[in-house]
Every structure is written in C-alpha cells, then in structure tokens.
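Deliverable D2.4 — example input (structure tokens):
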C-alpha cells in the first residue's frame, strides 16, 4: 500500500484511499463496537491500518470502539503497545472460539 491520502467511514466499510488504489475494510457492529477483521494482513500493514483508522475515528469523535481481529499475538501486541484508547485487539482464532461459546 502506498501513501494513504484519505480514510472514510461508510455504511459498512472503512475506505482507505491511497495514491493509486482504495481498500475497503468491512466491519460489523456488535455492542456499539466496530468489529474489523484485518487478519489477512501482515504485521506492518495491519498495524498501519489500525493506527490510521483508529486515529481517524478518535479525531472525528466517534464514541464507539474499534475491535481489530488480527492474525497472531505478535500483531496484537504491536497494536496494543500504542495504547490507542478507542481500540481492542483479538487474535482471530481466540475471537472465533469466544464467539462460538456465546452463540
């Protein structure tokens, strides 16, 4: 992904626009939280997306938290270290197991 020029929040997606492309990150709403699965991305890209989208929502004064579903503990730690107030992180395997228990 090149330099990010704009981030938008649409009805079902975070839209991240760069110089020559755009990326749609679908989200679902659960308990007043945006649930966004970025487990398909590597450590660097997932961290970058989490930082930028979380900061965008914080600046726009959204009251909802963003729950990032990531692929592994390393990515979870990388995002957690930043201490973004409006985020939570879950490893995909653990999130799927937790969701199955409550279903």
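Example output (designed residues):
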């Amino acid at each position: 992904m090149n330099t990010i020029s704009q981030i938008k929040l649409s009805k079902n997606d975070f839209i991240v626009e760069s110089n020559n492309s755009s990326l749609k990150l679908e989200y679902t709403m659960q308990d007043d939280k945006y649930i966004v699965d970025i487990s398909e991305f590597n450590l660097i890209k997932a961290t970058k997306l989490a930082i930028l989208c979380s900061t965008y929502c914080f600046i726009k004064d959204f009251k909802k938290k963003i729950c990032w579903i990531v692929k592994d503990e390393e990515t979870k730690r990388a995002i957690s270290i930043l201490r973004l107030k409006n985020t939570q992180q879950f490893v995909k395997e653990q999130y799927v197991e937790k969701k199955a228990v409550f279903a």
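The domain at 4-102 is CATH 3.40.630 (Aminopeptidase).
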